[in-house]
Specification:
heterodimer, A: alpha+beta, three-stranded antiparallel sheet, B: 426 residues, 72% helix
């Protein structure tokens, strides 16, 4: 605690603390727009933010510790509970990490199915982000549009694996479920129906004067800060850095697909909005290509019934909707991992909050929390 | 007694002018009940309309199509535990909602629902209305301060700054309308009834006067009144996603519902000002174009027609209700409601009644249009940030308002100016 000089220090009262113009506002953990149970302590001068401190851990469930007492396969469903709006991506990251540790690779068909579902999940996650972000800024209606359209994607998940939110769609070594009859058509139909809907969201927001005023120049993060803070995902790309693990370190079969990585220029909230909107379009492109090129064949690699990865450690990361989602797994050769460490994108991105909101107004804090797209299940684990 | 009533009803005086305490009381009672009912109706309509904009159904369970939902909510609020925070300033906390509600209702004293349908016709009517309605900021500050909590404090400070800065633009817009009343007679009037009557004598609504000046002034007022009533996109004082509930965060139960009541009553009040100043008050549309006794009769049938349409909708809904035992009460209820509306509609066809009611009807329709706009804004716009709100108020609305005011004055003087110039010229 003592060496954090640049942070808001609430324990010691300095003379400015007694200044009547300053106010310490406790935002959360019960607050309409801290996206769950985030608690932000704001030091304010009137409406101006002088500093913030995030208090996290209200949703801590000890996921990483649980892993040490479960077999590799048993831990798989737990990862879905971290970023619960993008559970498919979480499962993908974990399965791949264990596969890498075990040195197996999912068969091509499984990889394609995984890519289709993960990209659908990216769209769904961005829809939740857009709806809640718009709600934070005061636009009520996009939320309902986004959730209406997200339903189509959740229906595909439900048809595929029976679950909508915590899907547990993939298994170590591939997929356990074959694509159901009409899976391809459903995905294509969903994509075709989604694009006009996306235009509808844009119509409501992109050129809306109030929206532009509320987001342009708010929460600017330059590329150097992004790298220094370890920020990844759309937040990083909006600052102008073209870093997407799907291109930079292609996993699964992403190298087979043709898609763009949208980047922003200014690194403000508006750019992050545009980047995410464009990412949804690119996801549609990927899904269409993947559905067209969906190969035949097995969906499960040959892996032993009792999984005992060789002694060693592995770090594997994927591009989750919110940024780099990494799993560091240490194996001691037994059926249970010795240690699992998750690098959740939201947790790391949340670090940037203080940097982004200093000097802005209270209303911007809410906008910035929204634009960081944090999920507290993932931050606290 | 009966003769006195009859004599009064056939006279063309407001109770204030007639000096009749009895009629004033009756009017005040009617207005209080009417506004409360309007607020209840607004509550239902807002939820329904907003829901349909957002691809939802809105309240559907309590009564047919959720018609009884506002009553259920009111009941819930009344029997809810009344909490006063321990560290709150109890007296101020107690009196804040009273102040807000009183001011919101007092403004209706001078609202002319018809040529004689106002409690009183003050010669400073519009000034009175502005003055009283701006008192509500006092109640909001009291609420925010006495709650002894951060969110309400910030909400109330935002609110006071916002109301003060938008009142100026609002005032400028109102002065434009008052200037316009002075065109024919030479002397303007501040009386609400006088303003409508001067629109009648000039054969135009002030929104169309000196196009586009009248329209600009109206637009300034229409924006400022949304800010004045703390509604989206200017709902910063109660910005849900930032300040939880703003100045009434610590209020619950009946006190909270008083704030709610006051907010909607204030919306109705400012909409009434807008209607009176720019949209011809109680006058029916197209009085010049569609004139003559035939058209007068046709337009006087509108109140009854509206009620018949509503009754028809209700009866259609009754027919379309699912035929299952669980829905029986709802079906019967909706049917009875539809029949009641139809009955009231029938009463409004009676010549004597319909002539007296149609002024109120047109006034209410115009106010309802503004109420719809309020809901529409809420469904469409994101919220302004505080500094941007101030920028809009001081840097856009205020200069525009001043410019429109000067332009209106010059335009009004144009005949005299031109004759003066022509007189000087040889």
């Amino acid at each position: 605690m003592s060496d954090r000089t640049d942070y808001l220090d609430l324990d010691t009262k300095d003379e400015t603390f007694l200044d009547a113009t300053e106010l310490v506002l406790n935002m959360g953990p019960q607050h309409p727009s801290t996206h769950g149970v985030l608690r932000v302590i704001l030091k304010l001068d009137g409406e101006k933010v002088l500093g913030t401190e995030c208090v996290i851990g209200y949703l801590h469930r000890g996921v990483e510790k649980i892993a040490e007492n479960r077999t590799y396969a048993m831990f798989n469903p737990y990862v879905d509970r971290m970023d619960y709006v993008a559970s498919v991506s979480n499962g993908l990251g974990y399965c791949e990490a264990v596969e890498k540790l075990q040195n197996v690779e999912a068969p091509p068909r499984a990889q394609y199915i995984r890519v289709i579902l993960t990209e659908l999940c990216r769209i769904a996650s961005h829809q939740v982000w857009l709806g809640t972000h718009a709600l934070d800024i005061g636009a009520l209606t996009p939320l309902f549009y986004c959730f209406r359209d997200r339903e189509e994607i959740l229906k595909i998940f439900e048809k595929y694996c029976g679950a909508r939110l915590t899907t547990h769609a993939f298994r170590i070594g591939g997929c356990i479920y074959e694509a159901y009859d009409g899976f391809e058509q459903d995905c294509l139909k969903c994509c075709t129906a989604f694009l006009p809907k996306l235009d509808e969201y844009e119509e409501l927001l992109t050129t809306n004067r109030i929206w532009v005023r509320r987001t342009k120049g708010v929460g600017i993060l330059n590329p150097e800060d992004c790298i220094a803070l370890g920020v990844t995902g759309p937040v990083l790309r909006a600052s102008g850095l073209k870093w997407d693990l799907r291109k930079a370190q292609p996993y699964e079969c992403y190298k087979n697909f043709d898609f763009e990585i949208p980047t922003g220029l200014n690194g403000d909230t508006y750019d992050r909005y545009l980047v995410r909107i464009e990412e949804m379009r690119q996801s549609v492109r990927i899904i269409r290509q993947a559905v067209e090129g969906l190969p035949q064949g097995p969906i499960m690699a040959k892996i032993p019934k009792v999984l005992k990865p060789p002694v060693g450690e592995i770090y594997h990361s994927i591009e989750a909707p919110k940024g780099e989602l990494g799993y560091f797994i240490v194996s001691d050769g037994s059926t249970q991992p010795y240690r699992v460490r998750v690098r959740p994108p939201s947790f790391v991105n949340l670090q940037a909050l203080d940097k982004m909101v200093r000097g802005l107004l209270v209303a911007d804090v809410v906008a910035v929390i929204g634009t960081l797209d944090i999920v507290l299940g993932e931050v606290d684990r | 007694m009966f003769d006195a009533i009859k004599a009064y009803l056939s006279s063309s005086l407001t109770p204030g002018e007639a000096g009749s305490m009895f009629w004033a009381t009756i009017y005040i009672l009617i207005i209080t009940v009417g506004i409360s009912l309007a607020v209840i109706a607004m509550n239902w309509l807002e939820r329904k309309i907003l829901a349909h904009m957002q691809i939802r159904l809105g309240p559907m369970r309590v009564g047919p199509h959720g018609l009884l939902q506002p009553f259920a909510d009111a009941l819930k609020l009344l029997i809810k535990e009344d909490i006063i925070p321990q560290d709150a300033d109890k007296f101020v906390f107690w009196s804040a909602p009273v102040v807000v509600t009183m001011t919101a209702f007092t403004t209706f004293l001078v609202v002319p629902f018809g040529p004689t349908h106002a409690v009183t016709d003050m010669n400073i009517g519009i000034l009175f209305m502005l003055g009283v309605s701006s008192l509500s900021v006092l109640g909001i500050i009291m609420a925010g301060w006495s709650s002894n909590s951060h969110y309400p404090l910030m909400g109330s400070l935002r609110s006071s700054a916002q109301m003060v800065s938008y009142e100026i633009a609002m005032g400028l817009a109102i002065v434009c309308a008052v200037l316009m009343t002075s065109l024919e007679t030479g002397t303007g009037t501040l009386s609400m009834i006088g303003i409508v009557e001067s629109q009648a004598s000039q054969h135009t609504w002030f929104i169309f006067k000196f196009f586009p000046l009248g329209f600009l002034a109206f637009a300034i007022f229409a924006i400022a009144m949304v800010a004045e009533t703390n509604r989206a996109p200017f709902d910063l004082p109660e910005a849900e996603s930032e300040l939880v509930a703003g100045f009434h965060t610590e209020y619950s139960g009946f006190r909270w519902s008083l704030f709610f009541l006051a907010e909607y009553a204030a919306m109705l009040a400012v909409s009434s000002i807008a209607v009176t100043l720019w949209l011809g008050g109680w006058m029916r549309p197209f009085p010049n174009w569609l004139s003559g006794s035939t058209w007068n009769t046709a337009f006087s049938l509108f109140p009854a027609l509206t009620l018949f349409v509503l009754a028809g909708l209700c009866l259609l809904g009754t027919v379309r209700m699912p035929k299952i035992p669980q829905m029986k009460i709802q079906t019967v209820g909706l049917g009875i409601f539809g029949l009641l509306l139809g009955l009231v509609g029938l009463v409004l066809v009676i010549p004597g009644v319909r002539d007296r009611v149609q002024d109120i009807y047109w006034f209410v329709v115009k106010v309802a249009f503004f109420m719809y706009l309020y809901i529409w804004y809420r469904g469409t716009f994101p919220r302004y940030r505080f500094d941007q709100l101030m920028k809009v108020g001081w840097k856009v609305l205020l200069p525009t308002g001043l410019a429109v005011l000067i332009a209106t004055a010059l335009w009004g003087l144009l005949p005299q100016l031109s004759s003066a110039i022509l007189g000087v010229l040889p």
